[in-house]
Give the backbone structure.
Amino acid sequence: MNDLLAKALQGVDPDAPGAFWQIFANLLHLVPWAAMFWWNLLFIAIGALLGRWRGRTAEGVAWAAVLGPIGWLVILFRHRRKQQVMPPPLPR
């Protein structure tokens, strides 16, 4: 914890007016953004596959984008969309 605090406060004067934003920027520089991006794309792809299997592709993408792997569970436990069967046309 002390190491993280030292990295967050590196080059920051705590009494300065913009200290919060400097600390916030230092913490954002510690986040592995590239890895998070690729993991999120993987979650969305699997959500799209599960959604397509359940007849709700767009919903699968949306839930996976918002909740990640938890969105997969949302798609799996929702009821399947029933396909509307059209009756045959009436004779003339």
